[in-house]
UniProtKB/TrEMBL annotation:
Keywords: ATP-binding, Glycolysis, Kinase, Membrane, Mitochondrion, Mitochondrion outer membrane, Nucleotide-binding, Transferase. Belongs to the hexokinase family. This is Phosphotransferase. The keyword Transcription regulation does not apply. Pfam families: Hexokinase_1, Hexokinase_2. InterPro entries: ATPase_NBD (IPR043129), Hexokinase (IPR001312), Hexokinase_BS (IPR019807), Hexokinase_C (IPR022673), Hexokinase_N (IPR022672).
């Protein structure tokens, strides 16, 4: 699809919108246009600035590998924190009993319980409750956030049905999925390094998040114990591995993004003290902080500058669900301001940060109709925009450029991890079936993103090798995975 350049109006004029307001009166907007540029040239520049041809994705994959090594050598050795998860053994399938999981990660908070029945019966029963996290809690105090978690857990635990059995005299155990950068100090403790994904809760950074939860559970009268603290990637890896022994990497592509993988302990120079008996451990890369060689546009730079963590999480800001819609919105606002896309006035709604969400651009990209009717109504509903067919086409091109870059960079990141593993253990990754377990709403719901990701993996690995790499959605892996890790790390005798 190509878009012809449009001409712009004169500079410094009082514009009267050609679209009526809901009351039928013309909307009047003062818009002083200093830089008169055509929509076509803004689009061309956007496409050029965020292009990811082969040399770019090759560079990103290689830099990812190099940064992983630097982060494994010494703490602070690279942007990638390469956090030791203290998960040295993955679920075997023999786990039995009742376990809980809590999942605090992005948009939602989830509490879950599972009755595990061992090799034969596997997952006997599950129940869960999911709530969206109230906006004000994302900017409140640590006590408020953890009290919310503990009180939701208390309410959920009260509804435990007779399908679940806890042996007499035992405390209920929890796998706590906490999806932010945490420096683990053991399997059941870890210090929050910083918030990501728009969270700015005061008083948690620098504290042990399990202690925060324990204090809140005490305040709320909940008698449970956290036996495993895990990142969502680690939970996903454990959950997927429960069903498939070939799973070695897990990636989250949702509100935020991250990846973890199974590493050999002799490849971790910074690992001091006793090594795990399995000779393996899971490393949480925190790849959202990666930044080397990422093609950025002016819209990315502006969004980053306006964020609560400028200069940080650059990979996350170019590939994850929290940001793709916002980058597109910023591009469209510039096109409206400087090139009169959508007419003479810049629609107010479109000027609101984060008004256009990633699910909106995803829904627009699924519109195959001739007149792009769904694109038109989404633009109208979320951005207050009346659009012509050619304007809708431009919007789709903007979305596609951003989503294509996101998917391809994510694919390059995955190849970076796989090639690091392959270099250290020749032939054990690329010459056999290796599974990358994927989770997160962006990956699950965005077909174009998924196929751009797969394209980049195939381009980088070649069609033969990439047949061995299975990139697979692992629905709800992280919840059950955390409960499984609570079982593996239970303080009670394992009868498995
Ligand atoms: C966090 C990670 C998390 C990822 C996906 C990132 O913002 O730093 O810890 O795994 O989001 O939820």
């Amino acid at each position: 699809m190509s878009v012809a350049a449009t001409t712009s109006p004169a500079v410094g004029t009082l514009y009267v919108s050609r679209f009526p307001t809901s009351r039928g009166m013309p909307r009047v907007t003062m818009a002083l246009r200093s830089n008169v540029v055509s929509v076509g040239s803004i689009l061309t520049k956007l496409q050029k600035d965020c292009a990811t041809p082969f040399p770019v994705i090759r560079h990103v994959a290689d830099s990812m590998t190099a940064d992983m090594r630097a982060g494994l050598a010494v703490d602070g050795g690279s942007n990638l924190k390469m956090i030791l998860s203290y998960v040295d053994s993955l679920p075997s399938g023999n786990e039995k009993g009742l376990f809980y999981a809590l999942d605090l990660g992005g948009t939602n908070f989830r509490a879950l319980r599972v009755q595990l029945g061992g090799k034969e019966d596997r997952v006997v029963a599950t129940e869960f409750e999911q709530l969206s996290i109230p906006q004000e809690l994302m900017f409140g105090t640590s006590e408020e956030l953890f009290d919310f978690i503990a009180s939701t857990l208390a309410g959920f635990a009260e509804k435990e049905s007779e399908k679940f059995h806890l042996p007499h005299g035992r405390q209920r155990e929890i796998g706590f999925t906490f999806s932010f950068p945490v420096k683990q100090t053991s399997i059941d403790s870890g210090i929050l390094m910083k918030w990501t994904k728009g969270f700015a809760v005061s008083g948690t950074a620098g504290r042990d998040v399990v202690a925060c939860l324990n204090e809140a559970m005490e305040r709320q009268g909940v008698d449970m114990r956290v036996s495993a603290l895990v990142n969502d990637t680690v939970g996903t890896l454990a959950g997927a591995r429960y069903w498939d022994d070939d799973v070695l990497v897990a990636v989250i592509l949702g509100t935020g993004t991250n990846a973890c993988y199974v590493e050999r302990t002799d490849c971790i120079p910074k690992l001091q003290g006793p090594k795990s008996s399995s000779g393996r451990t899971i490393i949480n890369t925190e790849w959202g902080a990666f930044s080397d060689g990422i093609p950025l546009t002016v819209f990315d730079r502006d969004m980053d500058a306006a964020s609560i963590n400028p200069g940080e999480q650059i990979f996350e800001k170019t590939i994850s669900g929290m940001y793709l819609g916002e980058i597109a919105r910023r591009a469209l606002v510039t096109m409206a301001e400087e090139g009169s896309l959508f007419g003479m006035a810049v629609p107010n709604k479109l000027s609101t940060p984060f008004a256009l969400r990633t699910p909106d651009i995803c829904a627009m990209q699924q519109d195959n109709s001739d007149d792009l009717q769904a694109v038109g109504s989404i633009l109208h509903d979320v951005a207050g925009v009346e659009s012509s067919l050619s304007e809708r086409r431009i919007v789709l091109e903007v979305c596609d450029a951003i989503v294509r870059r996101g998917g391809r960079l994510a694919g390059a990141g995955i190849v970076g991890i796989l090639q690091k593993m392959e270099q250290d253990s020749k032939g054990t990754i690329f010459n056999k079936r290796t599974v990358v377990a994927m989770d997160g709403g962006l990956y699950e719901h965005y077909p174009q993103y998924r196929s751009y990701l797969q394209d980049a993996v195939t381009e980088l690995l070649g069609s033969e090798t990439s047949k061995n790499i299975v990139i697979e959605h692992s629905k709800d892996g992280s919840g059950i995975g955390a409960a499984l890790l609570a079982a593996t790390n239970s303080k009670y005798d394992h009868d498995f």
